[in-house]
Design a protein that fits this description.
mainly alpha, 76% helix, TetR/AcrR family transcriptional regulator, repressor, HTH-type_Tx_Regulator, Homeodomain-like_sf, DNA-binding
């Protein structure tokens, strides 16, 4: 296992148990069985490690959501969306709880900006889902509907944070899908306009081919020989000198989509090529 990934996995276990602030670099290195020098070869600080873990956590969730928003059958899209949200939250519940707690307490500007950035990406996927589901019928209320969906996501996530009881994810997803459809059908008074949304927090950061190449090179260097690595290398070559049809590019991206270390790059590539 690559040492950077080992540190991230072991630190994740400690953070989930103790929280960010209560866990020291010394504890992390002891738990990993490495020296502090080895730690600082991978991460400049504990804060950098925390950001890397949040990146990994949010990238996987957002890439999964974006994929199903584009590819799920419209009739079950809302259910799939809510189920994916809460399945990921339940699967990583210990770390998700830590993130929610740290968000409410942190003064780390980089962490705050990072979470705002991912929040805007989630909004982008929700708006795409609304477009697929309802089209022009909800044009005037689409942003209010988007905030309502985010409200459902945030409010019901408290069931996982504050109550240690088994939850029926299927029933929860069906219930929230019904509530969302009722709002879409009967909401008549819009409040959030496109202009207001942009004033609140515009998302202007567009990914470039050069940035994707940098990501590809890093991932390729970390991966063992596999069909995913071969696909990554072909995608890198295509970015540098386009030779494949869009169908082949989609196939290569599909090859890497399910690999845990490739979810974000597949998300970036889908956005870059527009599929």
């Amino acid at each position: 296992m690559v040492k950077r990934q080992l540190i991230m996995e072991k630190a994740l276990e400690l953070f989930a148990k103790q929280g960010f602030e209560a866990t020291s670099v010394q504890q992390i290195t002891d738990y990993c069985g490495i020296s502090k020098g080895a730690f600082y070869l991978s991460f400049k600080s504990k804060d950098e490690l925390i950001i890397a873990l949040i990146d990994q956590f949010m990238m996987q969730i957002i890439s999964d959501i974006d994929y199903l928003v584009i590819n799920s059958n419209v009739e079950k899209l809302l259910y799939d969306f809510y189920y994916a949200i809460y399945y990921n939250f339940q699967k990583h519940s210990d770390f998700a709880k830590v993130i929610m707690k740290e968000q409410s307490q942190t003064l780390n500007k980089e962490l705050i900006l990072k979470m705002k950035y991912y929040d805007k990406l989630i909004e982008k996927s929700i708006l795409r889902m609304i477009e697929r589901l309802y089209g022009d019928e909800v044009e005037e209320i689409q942003y209010d509907l988007m905030f309502s969906i985010k409200g459902f996501m945030n409010t019901y996530s408290q069931l996982f944070v504050f109550y240690n009881v088994p939850l029926d994810l299927q029933l929860l997803s069906v219930s929230l899908a019904e509530k969302t459809n009722l709002l879409a059908q009967h909401m008549t008074i819009p409040f959030v306009s496109r202009e207001l949304l942009h004033l609140l927090e515009p998302l202007n950061e567009e990914i470039t081919g050069e940035q994707i190449l940098d990501n590809l090179e890093q991932i390729i260097g970390e991966m063992d020989e596999s069909i995913e690595k071969e696909s990554l290398m072909l995608l890198k070559q295509h970015l540098q000198e386009p030779v494949y049809s869009i169908a082949i590019v989609k196939g290569l991206v599909e090859n890497i989509r399910s690999h845990p270390h490739c979810k974000w790059i597949s998300y970036l590539l889908r956005g870059y090529y527009g599929f």
